[in-house]
UniProtKB/TrEMBL annotation:
Similarity comment: Belongs to the NAD(P)-dependent epimerase/dehydratase family. GDP-mannose 4,6-dehydratase subfamily.
Classification of source organism: Bacteria, Bacillati, Chloroflexota, Ktedonobacteria, Ktedonobacterales
Protein name: GDP-mannose 4,6-dehydratase
This protein's encoding gene: gmd
Keywords: Lyase, NADP
Organism of derivation: Dictyobacter formicarum
InterPro entries named in the record: GDP_Man_deHydtase, NAD(P)-bd_dom, NAD(P)-bd_dom_sf
Functional description taken from the UniProt entry: Catalyzes the conversion of GDP-D-mannose to GDP-4-dehydro-6-deoxy-D-mannose.
């Protein structure tokens, strides 16, 4: 039974990857950092199957300890400060978490005495201000945010450790991937959640920034399989993972409102300059031919599948939450006082 260590196991991708590896028969270890409440929402159904290790990206010895406790054969380094917006507000912290931590983990791997295969969660944000479309492994980088710059550092350190120390280290250059487990601050989930609330009569406005930005959106469950496939190849390498189809934020809004039967969504949506980024990535479109050729990876979910599954999930979740709030407030109103 191989051992896998996942940093970022409480995040969107970590939860799908943990499910996938458990199904494959791996023993799965997950790095969790201490917080006043354990962020276990996405892995609640797996709590009995995962071994948790207390560690933090900023504390290198805790990463070494995590390697020793897990005796990992494969390390999936998914943990990071992953939100572009926050990276403009906290550029130094983003450098610590998202850039330097990659080196902390790579150095820790160099100091253990068994072979480890390493996956680094790189991103299409490294392409940033794109010069050529679609983007593949040869496309020049031009990041447009502190997050993109930090990830580019992590990418090059992964390449450098592979070249310097013959480490089995892969960088997956993944384009945006979404799911009902996406954080509420990212635009797709912000839209699906707001549209669900509008459908249920709980909200009447959705406030957004740039509706013209274009992204190549895929489904997170498909993308974690590509991470694993990269580590099963004979040689380590870097791969672009994407669907090859781009849509605008406006298209996402359109599809979301269409799903709840609203054609003209203009009364519900407002755009505000405060939500525009200091430097924007206008468009991203990936070419994943290398992954398709090398290990037959293809995405299964379409844009419409993704939008619909997110809205269906959010309608269900918001309705349930409202129901439990009603129960609690009813319980309070019937308390003797
Ligand atoms: P999430 O934001 O959902 O998850 C981030 C994870 O990192 C969480 O588990 C978080 O833990 C953990 N983390 C953050 N800081 C620390 C720390 N100091 N110590 C330990 N753990 C920490 O991200 P996603 O799942 O969406 O993305 C996974 C990775 O892939 C990220 O590195 C992201 O940048 C990258 N990526 C994502 C893409 C996407 O479209 N989703 C595309 C390309 C790359 P906690 O729960 O405690 O906050
Ligand atoms: P991104 O995702 O920056 O591509 O990074 P996000 O969903 O935050 O933004 C996508 C595009 O939508 C525009 N936008 C808005 N974005 C947010 N968050 N909120 C809004 O209200 C809004 N209005 C318009 C943005 O300007 C942007 O152009 C994600 C993250 O998962 C990264 O970790 C990952 O590396 C990349 O995808 C690939």
């Amino acid at each position: 039974m191989p051992n896998a260590l996942i940093t970022g196991i409480t995040g969107q991708d970590g939860s799908y990857l943990a499910e996938f590896l458990l199904q494959k028969g791996y023993r799965v270890y997950g790095v969790v950092r201490r917080a006043s409440t354990f962020n276990s929402e996405r892995i609640h159904h797996l709590l009995d199957e995962i071994e948790f290790i207390d560690a933090d990206l900023l504390d290198q010895l805790s990463l070494l300890r995590a390697l020793r406790l897990s005796r990992a054969d494969e390390v999936y380094n998914l943990a990071a400060m992953s939100f572009v917006g926050t990276s403009f507000a906290q550029p130094v912290a983003t450098g610590e978490y998202t850039a330097l931590s990659v080196t902390r983990m790579l150095e820790a791997i160099r100091f253990v005495d068994w072979p480890i295969r390493f996956y680094q969660a790189s991103t299409s944000e490294m392409f940033g201000k794109v010069q050529t479309t679609p983007q593949n492994e040869q496309t020049p980088f031009h990041p447009r945010s502190p997050y993109g710059v930090a990830k580019l550092y992590g990418h090059w350190m992964t390449v450098n450790f592979r070249e310097s120390y013959d480490l089995f280290a892969c960088s997956g250059i993944l384009f945006n991937h979404e799911s009902p487990r996406r954080g509420l601050e990212f635009v797709t989930r912000k839209i699906s959640h707001a549209v669900a609330r509008i459908h249920l009569g709980l909200q009447d406005k959705l406030t957004l920034g740039n509706l013209d930005a274009r992204r190549d959106w895929g489904f997170a469950g498909d993308y974690v399989q590509a991470m694993w496939l990269m580590l099963q190849q004979e040689k380590p390498d870097d791969y672009v993972i994407s669907t090859g189809v781009a849509h605008s934020v406006r298209d996402f809004v359109d599809a979301a409102f269409d799903y709840i039967g609203i054609d003209d969504w203009s009364p519900y949506v407002e755009t505000v300059p405060q939500l525009l980024r200091p430097a924007e990535v206008d468009q991203l479109l990936g070419d994943a031919s290398k992954a398709r050729q090398k290990f037959s990876w293809v995405p299964t979910a379409t844009f419409e599948d993704i939008v619909h599954s997110m809205i269906e999930h959010d309608i269900r979740q918001v309705a349930q939450a409202e129901e439990s709030i009603k129960k609690v407030s009813y319980a309070f109103t019937t308390q003797p006082c």
